[in-house]
Specification:
Elements lengths: L3 E4 L5 E2 L1 E4 L2 E3 L10 E8 L9 E5 L4 E6 L2 E3 L6 E7 L8 E4 L3 E9 L2 E5 L7 E8 L10 E6 L3 E6 L2 E2 L6 E7 L7 E5 L2 E7 L5 E4 L9 E8 L9 E5 L3 E6 L2 E3 L5 E7 L8 E4 L3 E4 L1 E4 L2 E5 L7 E8 L11 E6 L5
Parallel strand pairs: 8-14, 16-22, 24-31
Antiparallel strand pairs: 1-2, 1-5, 3-4, 5-6, 7-9, 9-12, 10-11, 10-13, 11-12, 13-14, 15-17, 17-20, 18-19, 18-21, 19-20, 21-22, 23-25, 25-29, 26-27, 26-30, 28-29, 30-31
Keywords: Signal
Pfam families: TIG
Protein name: IPT/TIG domain-containing protein
């Protein structure tokens, strides 16, 4: 036996019977426009049910979503959907990919907040709105799941206590669309997204008593990496060098005396502002460098670094270059 549904004065629509107490009807386009219509069911001949009110509403229109992407496995994030003709409803739902649905929170006629369902795969899905959780009642918009935020490595791992050390971070989940940040303990600084997928950020000046802190990365939407890497605030200083002069032909081993040298760090020295050479660690107070051939004679500046040349000591220490050493 066939059963039909009627919405207002529209033609009858064939219903699908689920069981003795349930059936499904697909609502046709409204003839009268938005507003209430009478809904009835019939056998198509002379039997009619009682009538209920069915509400036709203006189709919701989605213009944008913020953020446009979220990390896979993320379960506590939400997005704001912007558009028109959003209306408050206890059954307002967000549909992701047409199958996953979450409760929507109505903000106003142009904004709705959607919680994000967990997804184990990267890629784009459609995001739409519904008032009953079945069919979308808005246009779809693209939303992306991306790799989770993770730090794999960074360089350097040591920086000046004055701040300003440029750090390159390798990892996954960085965004070319929204803002990236680096978090030094509890201090957040902006990060630059590089064309090769890395991040670059500058360390802030050291604050507090801890020299060894955790570095994390995050997105402007509040998502933070679960992993972190250790970053050490440290500076080296030079008090004196022995010998204080050497031949222009090079080969002079200079003993640099000072403080703050680190055994497992990349200790180096810089001569005359251009020649950066590896330094041999002796102790926290001494490293050695061997001079290369130098052009001309006169004073050249000697500097030291403990982070591969990203930061150098601030003292003015000079080495005298001569033609030949007197014996």
């Amino acid at each position: 036996e066939e059963v039909f549904c009627q919405f207002g004065s529209a033609q009858l629509v064939l219903a699908t019977i689920w069981n003795n107490s349930s059936l499904v009807c697909k609502a046709p386009a409204s003839i009268e426009g938005s507003g209430f219509s009478l809904f009835r069911i019939t056998d198509g001949e002379n039997k009619w049910s009682n009538s209920l009110q069915y509400l036709y509403e203006d189709q919701m229109i989605i213009w944008s979503v913020t953020p446009e992407e979220i990390a896979i496995f993320e379960t506590e994030a939400s997005v704001i959907v912007f558009g028109d003709y959003f209306y408050p409803s206890d059954t307002l739902m967000c549909l992701f990919g047409g199958t996953k649905k979450t409760k929507a929170s109505w903000i106003n006629e142009t904004a709705v907040e959607c919680s994000i369902p967990e997804n184990n795969h990267t890629g784009k899905v459609s995001l739409s709105l519904s008032t009953h959780g079945f069919d979308p009642l808005s246009n779809p918009i693209n939303f992306s799941y991306v790799e989770p935020l993770e730090i794999m490595s960074m360089s350097p791992t040591i920086g000046s206590m004055k701040g300003g050390t440029r750090i390159i971070v390798n990892g996954t989940g960085f965004s070319s669309v929204i803002e990236n940040v680096c978090i030094f303990s509890s201090e957040t600084v902006n990060a630059e997204f590089l064309i090769n997928g890395q991040l670059a950020c500058e360390s802030p000046p050291k604050s507090g008593t801890e020299s060894l802190i955790g570095l994390r990365v995050g997105l402007g939407n509040g998502i933070r990496s679960k992993s972190m890497k250790q970053f050490q605030y440290a500076d080296c200083t030079i008090h004196s060098i022995i010998p204080a002069q050497g031949a222009a032909e090079g080969g002079t081993e200079i003993h640099i005396h000072g403080a703050g040298f680190i055994e497992k760090a990349t200790n180096m020295c810089r001569i005359n502002g251009t020649n950066i050479l590896p330094a041999t660690f002796i102790s926290a107070k001494e490293v050695t460098c061997t001079t290369p051939p130098l052009n001309g004679t006169g004073r050249v500046k000697i500097e030291a670094t403990i982070n591969s040349g990203h930061d150098f000591n601030s003292e003015n220490i000079y080495f005298e270059v001569v033609d030949n050493l007197l014996v």
